[in-house]
Design goal:
Layout: H1 5-17, H2 21-25, E1 28-35, E2 41-43, H3 45-52, E3 57-67, E4 70-79, E5 84-95, E6 98-106, H4 109-112
Parallel strand pairs: 1-6
Antiparallel strand pairs: 1-2, 3-4, 4-5, 5-6
Length: 116
């Protein structure tokens, strides 16, 4: 039995929180697209994980919706490396049991403020 799109996304987020990038990588396609709040895309798993690892993210999920191949997660994301928390929305598209597109929306200004 294949996992649901919701289970795939939740497992992916859990692996990222645990900094288990090998497992997290198993949930995405080789050509995954990531769209940051500024709209600029990162193409490919290698580029995505290279940018992701130093952030040491934690997720506090507030709400999750799924419909077909789409999963929308509303969460607080803690950027542990900077001790910054942002309220965000992530849209994950799953095809053939792997995430092939990630779009995350949040106000990035707190990430650019000087650290205390």
């Amino acid at each position: 039995m294949n996992p649901s799109t919701k289970e795939i996304v939740l497992s992916f987020l859990k692996a990222i929180e645990e900094q288990d990038y090998k497992t997290a990588r198993s949930y995405v396609t080789d050509n995954v697209s990531f769209y940051a709040p500024d709209g600029s895309p990162l193409e490919g798993a290698e580029a995505y994980f290279k940018g992701l690892a130093p952030l040491r993210l934690k997720y506090d999920i507030k709400k999750l919706f799924s419909e077909g191949d789409d999963v929308c997660v509303i969460y607080d994301i803690t950027f542990s490396a900077r001790q910054v928390v942002v309220f965000a929305c992530g849209l994950y598209q799953v095809q053939n049991s792997k995430i092939n597109s990630i779009r995350v929306l949040f106000d990035p200004r707190p990430l650019f403020q000087p650290q205390k």
